[in-house]
Design a protein that fits this description.
Length: 592
């Protein structure tokens, strides 16, 4: 929204409103004008103005390229989303919100905006990618000069440390990722976070700030993925003087090109230009739009309708369009709707986890029988076909480089029956399949139960509350054992686009007894644990060996990776698929 327009309108306010704070006046006017703009856009899109061209660069243009490249600034970028968990960078755990935060939070390093390389890191607030010590325990970064918060104050390494310190206050800052706690805290003398005022509270000595531009991290153990942890919004700077604790998300202080100026249940979240952002210090964000508005709380179909009608430019949810919208595509080469779609595999992998502490899955041969009987083609059909799922036989998302080659083995019922003989269950056995009570998951569970019945394995499909499914049901070893969950239908999605982030929670057995731990198969193999340590130190092909060893135990049976279709809004410019967030990158997006 042009600042001059708001200033002129502010001069015409009635006298009773002129006592308001100036920021409140301008934000309120901006919200009113945006409501009008959105209403006009909806009417125009629904009516189909003949003089407005529909964006159609071709299918999958933005997967490894740019959809409608443009350097033109101005206008309002319109985003749609489901519910947002928090605007506090240390409290959000939704990739779609992390994408939005690229507009108002900066981190030492961040994801690249180069097409086809968006899962790679580049410097952001830091001058380079940092320096790591030979033993992998110490990381040192230098802050750029000239970076400022929206209030005009210089950002220092103390602000970076303080932002990270907030994640340690688990009683106040609830809901966000805690990788930094695991990597930096001292278990013998845990740091309580910045809000505790006890005299004997320890300091977070694992982070040192010897001067305003130097920051040093001392890890408890080597972690090659540490730069990816620093790219999370939870590692962004926060000025201590502006920290409202649990309420900070109501008005977070911007370090990026936009600042949140209002949050309204009806009009949405409004972001306007941060005048203190210097493009000379930022090689990542284009900051083309004058403003950004986010309409939240919309269902999947409502978000699709907004994109189709032209009243939205990007859906940041990361879930793609709904089946009803996909059905509108004719599949013909000249289908204008299909030309606005980018097909993306998300890295979200459905697997069968076979808990190794639940009989008879404590027998590798019984687990092998289950793995051999699975028909992935039928699972793919149950998930809605090739448009919604890609068959997968490896514990490795297709978008991650360096993994094993994905083959497509079909079911081998003879091998399954032979494995049953070896495990002492020639007539088969009975077990319980735990599944989240959701339509797609139930379809897959019923399909798996039917497949296993062909070799004599009788499966009771037990739907469980999806809200508590991972945290307190299949994530609780005692509950799994008590209820005899011999099969768990789970979905594994890594927070970071690295092999370690995907594999370690699934296969490292040293935290297998922890409630909420995603090692749903209770796999605890000393050789695999050692391989994990070696891969952390060496990286590269070492992770491939971990994946192959874990697959060889038959504790996990990969089924299919989720595939989605992203629909570009009619006005979207510079559309680049951001793979880690399964959406278009808001940091580069512009509008016509």
């Amino acid at each position: 929204m042009p600042q001059q327009t708001l200033e002129r309108l502010a001069e015409r306010l009635p006298t009773w409103a002129r006592g308001w704070p100036r920021r409140r006046i301008l934000a309120s006017l901006a919200v009113v004008l945006l409501v009008i703009v959105l209403a006009v856009s909806c009417l125009g899109g629904a009516g189909g103005r003949a003089d407005v061209p529909v964006l159609a660069d071709g299918a999958d243009t933005a997967v490894d390229g740019v959809r409608s490249p443009s350097e033109e600034g101005g206008g309002t970028l319109r985003l749609v989303a489901p519910e947002i968990d928090s605007l506090d960078p240390q409290r959000s755990y939704l990739p779609g919100v992390w994408n939005l935060m690229r507009l108002y939070t900066r981190t030492l390093v961040t994801y690249s905006t180069e097409p086809g390389e968006t899962d790679q890191l580049v410097p952001d607030l830091a001058t380079d990618m940092g320096t790591v010590s030979e033993d992998g325990l110490t990381w040192t970064f230098t802050l750029r000069e000239g970076v400022r918060f929206e209030n005009g104050r210089d950002i220092t390494t103390v602000d970076l440390k303080y932002g990270i310190q907030r994640s340690f206050a688990s009683d106040v800052i609830v809901g966000g990722p805690t990788y930094v706690v695991d990597l930096l805290d001292d278990p013998a003398n845990p740091y309580p976070g910045p809000y505790s005022r006890e005299e004997d509270d320890p300091d977070l000595t694992a982070i040192e700030t010897p001067d305003p531009r130097t920051i040093i991290f001392r890890l408890r153990a080597p972690q090659p993925d540490f730069p990816y942890v620093l790219a999370l919004p939870s590692s962004s700077p926060v000025p201590a003087e502006a920290d409202g604790g649990a309420a900070y998300g109501a008005d977070p202080t911007s370090s990026g090109p936009y600042a949140i100026t209002s949050v309204d249940p009806e009009a949405g979240i409004l972001l306007e230009r941060n005048p203190e952002w210097d493009p000379a210090t930022d090689q990542v964000r284009t900051a083309l739009p004058d403003s950004v508005v986010v309409r939240t709380g919309l269902s999947g179909l409502e978000r699709d309708q907004a994109l189709l009608a032209g009243s939205a430019d990007i859906d940041i949810s990361g879930t793609g369009v709904q089946a009803a919208t996909t059905a509108r595509m004719t599949g013909e080469d000249d289908d204008p709707l299909a030309e606005r779609v980018d097909d993306v595999t998300t890295g979200s992998l459905r697997v069968l986890a076979l808990p190794t502490d639940v009989a008879p899955m404590n027998s590798p041969d019984c687990r092998t029988a289950v793995a051999a009987a699975v028909d992935r083609s039928a699972v793919q059909t149950a998930l809605g076909g090739a448009a919604n799922a890609v068959r997968s036989s490896e514990l490795w998302p297709r978008g991650l480089a360096g993994g094993p080659k994905h083959t497509d083995p079909g079911p081998d019922l003879d091998a399954a029956r032979a494995a049953l003989e070896t495990c002492g269950q020639p007539e088969g056995f009975s077990t319980v399949l735990a599944v989240a009570d959701a339509p797609a998951s139930l379809l897959v569970a019923d399909e798996i139960a039917g497949q296993l019945a062909e070799v004599g394995i009788d499966v009771e499909v037990r739907p469980l509350d999806p809200v508590t499914f991972y945290a307190t049901e299949v994530g609780n070893p005692d509950i799994v054992a008590r209820n005899g969950y011999g099969i768990v239908l789970a979905t594994r999605t890594a927070d970071l686009p690295t092999p370690g982030s995907f594999l370690v929670p699934l296969v490292d057995g040293r935290s297998v007894r922890t409630v909420g731990n995603p090692n749903y198969a209770r796999l605890d193999d000393p050789a695999i644990n050692t391989s994990v340590d070696e891969a952390r130190a060496q990286g590269g092909d070492s992770w491939r060996a971990v994946a192959e060893a874990a697959l060889g135990t038959a504790a996990y049976v990969p089924l299919a990776e989720t595939r989605i279709q992203l629909l570009a809004g009619q006005r979207l410019r510079n559309g680049v698929v951001m793979r880690p967030y399964a959406s278009y990158d808001v940091a580069t997006a512009g509008v016509r």
